[in-house]
Specification:
It holds the Pfam family Aminotran_3. The protein has about 450 residues and is α/β, with parallel strands linked by helices. The chain is built from 14 helices and 17 strands. Bound molecules: 4'-deoxy-4'-aminopyridoxal-5'-phosphate.
């Protein structure tokens, strides 16, 4: 028996021993096409020679220097790389080791910003139901997924949750996308008024909802309205791009497609593409300046901040993506994937919706298509699809998001940016076979 304490104590997992491009290989030599990049992580696949060489080189020169004594070259270069390409106004980067840490840093930066400005009462957060922001206590409190939160309550942060932008289920018949977005903006405004605008610190959202709903983008104009409302009340906008960022939707930052700039942006997963653990919070100039001109010290820190090897890996990943023109490839592969999914599952009785952007695509499984009825949550269908797919040699990311208390079954596809067309076909064929096994 393995002595690894695993999250799922009732299931055994195969032992991964190798990777080759978009494939993972287990100890028995079985190959799995990684159609979800683990959890939207491995955007360059599993054996990129340039990234491996950059990691080797950095470990050989300097693996680690504590951030309270030094910066390092890869840390400085990665910060420059990101700020040069980030939406205007984001002027510095706080490095951490993953997505939850990036969200925690964003929450504490927001809080400290208002303390430095003499508005300590601004500590209330507004986030959205059906969102995931991580598993540390602050990030867990921010996420709206009831079943993840329940057993750990009371959580430490004051958060209220408003509706996500989820057109497939919540846009009313006959309602235009604009009217639907406006309805959500009105709900947000009402929540701010209920709390008192002077008490609200930040609104937190994923530009494209990942881990709870499976690649759900907002309707056009929604985020611009959110930005206006935040500005009107002096509330910070925090966009969590941990899953949807770093090129996954076809632009480096997903919010570029919404035409808004946030005050704080969290990134992780695709940043280091799994070659090293790394995350970051991009910070707007006004927040940096308020802290620099105030106490001059951000009350937060972790031992591995700006880890030299992790920064070198991320820099190599991002330079490789740019040098090979892979963001354009994400757009064309994403269209190819959507077309194939629609051709194969467009009339499927249990596929209610196929959606997403770039190489970030989701399928929503329903018991009854016209009524959009979710499957009985006790069936844990999403988990069964994941297991069937593993048998077929395919990795897809399953999720049972809460739909106002009911569970819904979603399958997220977030494959590496290096696929070829035959591998797109392989994803759809194996997913089809997996659904057939589970649903018949
Ligand atoms: N935010 C979002 C949007 C995420 O999808 C995730 C991870 N699924 C996190 C935060 C947390 O990241 P990590 O698991 O690296 O802590």
């Amino acid at each position: 028996m393995s002595h690894v304490f695993h999250r799922h104590l009732k299931h055994a997992y195969p032992t991964a021993v190798g990777g080759e491009g978009p494939y993972l290989i287990d100890a028995q030599g079985k190959r799995y096409l990684d159609a979800c990049g683990g959890a939207a992580v491995s955007c360059l696949g599993h054996s990129d020679a340039e990234v491996i060489e950059a990691v080797r080189d950095q470990v050989g020169r300097l693996a680690y220097a504590h951030s309270s004594f030094f910066t390092t070259e890869p840390m400085e270069e990665l910060a420059d790389f990101l700020v040069e390409r980030a939406p205007a106004g984001l002027s510095s980067v706080y490095f951490v080791s993953g997505g939850s840490e990036a969200v925690e840093a964003a929450l504490k930066l927001a809080r400290q910003y208002f303390i430095e400005r003499g508005e300590p009462q601004r500590k209330h957060l507004i986030a959205r139901r059906q969102s995931y922001h991580g598993n540390t206590l602050g990030a867990l409190a921010t996420g709206g997924n009831a079943w993840r939160r329940q057993q750990f309550e009371p959580l430490l942060v004051e958060v209220s949750h408003v509706s996500p932008c989820y057109a497939y289920r919540d846009q009313a018949p006959g309602e235009t996308p604009e009217a639907y977005g406006e309805r959500l903006a009105t709900e947000l405004e009402a929540e701010i008024q209920r709390l008192g605008p002077e008490n609200v610190m930040a609104f937190v959202a994923e530009p494209v909802v990942g881990a709870t709903l499976g690649a759900v983008p907002a309707v056009p104009g929604y985020f611009r309205r959110v930005r206006e409302i935040c500005d009107r009340h002096g509330i910070l906008l925090v966009l969590d791009e941990v899953m949807c960022g770093m090129g996954r939707t076809g632009t480096l930052f997903a919010a570029e497609q919404e035409g808004v700039t946030a005050d704080l942006v969290t990134i992780a997963k695709g940043l280091g593409a799994g070659y090293q653990p790394i995350g970051a919070t991009l910070v707007s100039e006004r927040i940096r300046a308020a802290i620099a001109e105030g106490s001059g010290f951000f009350q937060h820190g972790h031992t591995y901040i700006g880890h030299a090897t992790a920064c070198a890996a991320a820099l190599a990943v991002q330079r490789t993506i740019e040098a090979r023109g892979l963001l354009e490839r994400v757009v064309s592969l994403g269209e190819g994937l959507q077309q194939r999914l629609e051709a194969r599952f467009g009339d499927h009785p249990h596929v209610g919706d196929i959606r997403g952007r770039g190489l970030f695509r989701g399928l929503e499984l329903v018991a009854e298509r016209d009524a959009k009825t979710p499957f009985d949550p006790e069936r844990k269908l999403h988990a069964a699809v994941k297991r069937a797919a593993m048998d077929e040699g395919l990795m897809c990311y399953p999720m049972g998001g809460t739909l106002d208390g009911r569970r819904g079954d979603h399958i997220l596809l977030a494959p590496p940016f290096i696929l070829d067309d035959a591998q797109l076909d392989e994803i759809v064929d194996k997913l089809d076979a997996s659904l057939t096994r589970v649903l018949t």
